[in-house]
Design goal:
single chain, alpha/beta, Rossmann fold, five-stranded parallel β-sheet, 17 helices, 7% strand, elongated
């Protein structure tokens, strides 16, 4: 009986050491995929070789760590049995390792740590295995490009035409872009990315064959704005496409820079949309708050697509951004995966890795602290001052206040612009009665934002 208890302790030690050292095995998997990713690279050979050497060193270090980990696990598992043989004065080689009772005791002991040390999942229900899978796919751009090419071949026979007419909803974060995009999607015949496409964002059809959740449970998103989401909820996910095919070239340490897209990337973008569209009668719809960085370039390649920009009262908008910045900074402090997740998707609107739009490819100097309303008023002024310079009649400019008060009228206007028929039966007005104290704000800054706000209202669509 004592021997079986010792066997259970060995099983416990085996599982516990595996749990303690699992990050080493995850690191080996990640380094192996990273090496594969570099092999797939089509960069200049000299650059590729340097990256391959770095990846090779990383995998060799991971292999060494893994060997050491296996030795530790073996020692931890065998130690209780070895000590038992010493105290019972039994030859270690003569111990029973094959009986049903020994295997059962070992198995029971190995199960216990998984219950004792089970980590509570975060609110997003991402297990450690799920996080690993996300890192393997989203951190490796060359692998994502390969998956993209596979998906194009996979869907080639379905004859979904590439369409130059599509709809992008944009604006500075917290301008109502998520709500409007969601309303459009529910009202008309649109196709868009949703959370179920994660993490194989560039291979939506291949992934759908393996993972296609139905009627996913809805819960409030982390923004605390009563917007509900689930795996079938559409979201701003297309930015990953531009990150991959532009190789993050527009992402700096503290800024996101204005850039051009080539005709080759544009053609791939249309092909990507065709992978997402479920029917030739559907328009591609996306929310992308980074559109402004490439809007002139994209417009020069395509006069057909519809760009909807929302703007909001600067004080209300800045206050909302400030609150989200503080909120997400706390979230990211408690769980660094949230920051990683936002970085993957190009969401640098707030939080630890917040970045400012640079429209002249130069650093943007804001003299205020990020914990002040003045900082976010400056962010607002930087964004919407540039939007006014575009002076493009093709831009559909919508006031957030109009959307709050008369969402149905806004959607009717968009229905006419897009020449589509919408179902408006479930559209209801919203309320926002919050008052904001601006007594500590810079008066000149407030005046400057109010001036730009007035100019935006002069250009907005009439509701």
């Amino acid at each position: 009986m004592l021997y079986l208890i010792v066997a259970g302790i060995s099983g416990f030690a085996l599982a516990a050491s595996l749990l303690v050292l699992k990050k080493i095995f995850f690191e080996l998997i990640e380094s192996s995929v990273s090496l594969t990713n570099e092999v797939l690279s089509k960069e200049d050979e000299s650059i590729k070789q340097k990256k391959l050497i770095v990846a090779l060193k990383r995998i060799l270090i991971s292999l060494l760590k893994t060997v050491v980990a296996f030795i530790i696990i073996a020692c931890a598992t065998l130690l209780p049995l070895y000590l038992y043989s010493l105290f019972s004065k039994t030859n270690f080689e003569s111990l029973d390792f094959t009986s049903l009772w020994f295997i059962l005791s070992l198995s029971i002991g190995s199960i216990i740590p998984f219950f004792l040390f089970k980590k509570k999942r975060n609110d997003d229900n991402y297990s450690e295995a799920s996080k690993l899978f996300h890192r393997l796919i989203l951190n490796n751009y060359n692998l994502s490009k390969l998956l993209f090419s596979f998906d194009r071949k996979f869907k080639k026979g379905e004859k979904i035409k590439e369409e130059s007419n599509f709809v992008i909803v944009s604006g500075l974060a917290r301008a109502g872009t998520t709500s409007l995009t969601d309303q459009l999607f529910k009202a008309g015949k649109f196709s868009s990315l949703d959370y179920s496409n994660m993490p194989l964002l560039l291979a939506p059809n291949l992934w759908k064959k393996l993972y296609n959740p139905k009627n996913a449970e809805l819960k409030e998103r982390k923004h605390g704005d009563k917007m509900m989401f689930g795996l079938n909820t559409i979201e701003a996910l297309e930015e990953y496409f531009f990150k991959v095919f532009l190789n993050d070239s527009f992402i700096g340490d503290s800024i996101l820079t204005k850039h051009d897209i080539t005709e080759e990337v544009y053609e791939k973008y249309l092909a990507y949309q065709s992978l997402i569209r479920s029917d030739n009668s559907h328009l591609y719809l996306s929310k992308n708050n980074n559109l402004i960085l490439r809007y002139p370039s994209l417009r020069s390649l395509n006069r057909d697509f519809k760009a909807i920009f929302l703007f909001r009262n600067p004080v209300e908008h800045a206050d909302s951004l400030l609150n989200q910045h503080l909120r997400f900074s706390d979230f990211q402090h408690d769980d660094d995966f949230i920051e990683t997740y936002m970085d993957w998707l190009g969401h640098h609107e707030f939080g630890h890795n917040q970045k400012v739009f640079s429209f002249d490819n130069k650093p943007v100097i804001i003299e205020y602290d990020k914990g002040t309303l003045d900082y976010w008023l400056s962010v607002w002024l930087n964004y919407y001052s540039y939007l006014l310079t575009l002076d493009d009649s093709a831009i559909i400019l919508i006031n957030y206040q109009d959307y709050l008060s008369n969402p149905k009228d806004v959607l009717v206007h968009l229905q006419n612009e897009l020449k589509m028929e919408f179902d408006l039966s479930n559209v209801k007005p919203f309320k926002n009665n919050k008052t904001i104290d601006t007594s500590g704000c810079n008066k000149e800054l407030l005046d400057a934002t109010e001036k730009v706000y007035d100019q935006l209202k002069q250009k907005k669509v009439s509701i």
